[in-house]
Amino acid sequence: MFIVLEGIDGTGKSTQVQLLADWFVQQGREVVTSREPTDGPWGKRLRESAATGRATAEEELELFLRDRRQHVEELISPSLAAGKVMILDRYYFSTMAYQGSRGLDIDEIRRKNEAFAPLPDHLFILDLDVDLALQRIGGRGDTANEFEKRGALQKCREIFLSLRTEPFAQLIDASVPMENVHEQIKSALAERR
């Protein structure tokens, strides 16, 4: 099973990935969790770009494609082939949102990714008002980086919301306590089995 959690910064994706992984482990399933960008060479360059001054949208897209291709080849596909539950914190839908918010064509971004990246079985879009997301980002002691400016986050949120009509997508209200978000995700999984 391939599960992806998406949403703007501050929605609690990392927390939900861990809660979901723990839940599957309690059921006796083998689980692999990961995130994008990865900690590989291309992902590190992307993280540095966010902290030190962003690359162009086109350069970022190329780095994301290289990072994701390596991720698919070395971790995602082998994990799925071995029958494990693969849970990702961000995937190419984030690339569509964040690079799309910078003016790149989201359909073209999607086409380039789906040429090699498998579709998830479940895409959970954790949705949160931008102002609340910014409060959470500030509340965790972080300063907003270039990916986390209000206008950019609003555009990203709109792109994420446009994905909710996909047959494998489910919109999750991330404004509620994390336990309630986890229950929403578990309920959605139960309904789709």
TrEMBL record:
PROSITE patterns linked to this entry: THYMIDYLATE_KINASE
InterPro entries for this protein: P-loop_NTPase, Thymidylate_kin-like_dom, Thymidylate_kin_CS, Thymidylate_kinase
Domain spans labelled Thymidylate kinase-like: 5-185
Enzyme class: transferase
Domain of life: Bacteria
Residues holding ATP: G7, I8, D9, G10, T11, G12, K13, S14
Record GO terms (molecular function): kinase activity
Key words, A-Z: ATP-binding, Kinase, Nucleotide biosynthesis, Nucleotide-binding, Transferase
EC nos: 2.7.4.9
Catalytically driven reaction(s): dTMP + ATP = dTDP + ADP
Pfam family, one: Thymidylate_kin
Function per UniProt: Phosphorylation of dTMP to form dTDP in both de novo and salvage pathways of dTTP synthesis.
Entry-linked NCBIfam families: DTMP_kinase
Family to which this protein belongs: Belongs to the thymidylate kinase family.
Name of the protein this chain belongs to: Thymidylate kinase
Species assigned in the record: Haloferula sargassicola
